[in-house]
Predict the 3D structure of the following.
Amino acid sequence: MKKITIAANWKMYLDESGSIDFIEKLNAESDLFSNRDIILFPSHACIRSVKNHLKSDIKIGMQDCDMHEQGAYTGSTSIKAIDVASCIVGHSERRAIYKENNDIISEKLQRTLSSDIEPILCVGETLEQKNNQLTETVLDDQLSILSNKLSGKQLTIAYEPVWAIGSGDVPSNEYISEMLSYIKSRLKSLYSGADLDNIKLFYGGSVDASNINELLNVELIDGFLIGSASANFEKFRDIVKQIKL
Ligand code: PGA
């Protein structure tokens, strides 16, 4: 059985004391969390404290990084600033609120890969795009930053329909399967048929303890990118409990 990854995107939900409190509760139940593939994505400013308090081998990632490596970029954070295992790139909140386009996202992806940090590239359509039958066009466009050059690189694609994020509205398993199959077929052609063993597929959007069990039936899912439910320790624990080892 494959090991399901749980990626906890804390967004801007937890401040430093909230992050430490979460980690202390997690440490107290370390048996449940050990031997699992878990990545926590705290706010950049809290990564150091989280790492200092964490007593298990849980991985830590960045929610985003700057497209540049170093220099006069006030307020931004380089992928080189902190030692992390993974970095989220192209999250829909970055695309919509911070107006990140494919050029910027592609730079961030390259920056992450060249630092040997595993990116999680988020893709997904808005409700309007879905209603206008544009989902595949949108996915094609968002995936177009990948190419043959990247084949062999460790990479995760998180399919996160924008309409499912934070809405409680989770697509059916059939819909998710269809979209992940589509993404896989696009990757095959972008990578000129190279094998895709190094690419993982995640689902994200309103995942919580009430739906994870059902979502685990989607065969193509290698992991989940979880937002609000992952920033509350009790909710997070109830999700993790349902993932079989
Ligand atoms: P959500 O967010 O779980 O709160 O819907 C998911 C995400 O944005 O990655």
Q: What stands out?
A: The chain has a mean pLDDT of 96.
